[in-house]
Design goal:
Helices cover 44% and strands 11% of the residues. It has 272 residues and is α/β, with parallel strands linked by helices. Helix 2 runs parallel beside helix 7.
Length: 272
Amino acid sequence: MVPAQDSLSALAWLVEAGADEAMGDAPADRFAARPQAQMARPAPPAVAKAPAAAPKAPPPLESDSIGTAIELARGANSLVELKAALEGFDGCALKRTATNTVFADGNPTNRIMFIGEAPGRDEDKQGLPFVGRAGKLLDKMMAAIHLDRSKAYITNVINWRPPDNRDPSPEEAAMCLPFLRRHIELVNPGVMILLGAVAVRHVMGRSDGIMKTRGRWLDYQVNGRMVPVMPTLHPAYLLRQPAHKKLAWRDLQAVEEKITALGLVEQASAKG
């Protein structure tokens, strides 16, 4: 038996000498016809697998809900249709915790429109805006300038009560704004009064504090024309800070002068 070391030495010598393939003990005929390759056997039929369960549809995105709100609001051609569209809209999570959808109250034909922030506990129970303590104060504020709910129209930015009366989130407001904008278009107001910072922020897009914006006339475009807008203090704020009622009174006096100049007082009296 040849020692392994000698075999390795011999192999190394052959490689150095230029050998590049191994030779067998028997001579090979390189010119003989090669046997045909064995035909491949057909693969066994694949066993059909049960189809995988379809993935569950992801929850709708906030942008989807906003798009739905825009379509529903745009399709409403009357306040009755708009209210029905709002009540059928399920994209806002606030609706799931609310008792009622709070749409509006008052007379829309008189073109004097008050817009508040969101319903509270009493409003949520009754389905009407400003019916609690703040609502009673608003009635007194309107009476001071010879208005009441038969001569003015009242709504909110948000149509469902936020839990614990917290401020609505930007996403919640964005889902309600298409309905509010269409609401304003359908009422076609001659003057608007915004009650509180939340209403000013979402209607006018202004983030200034209410103390900086109140008492100054702003403009809001409705149906191709500019509508005068007066920001003022929310009645709920005045209940907490009664010393500031004098500021709200100045704002209301300016509102009375404006609606008189626009001829809305006579219109309201004739229709009321």
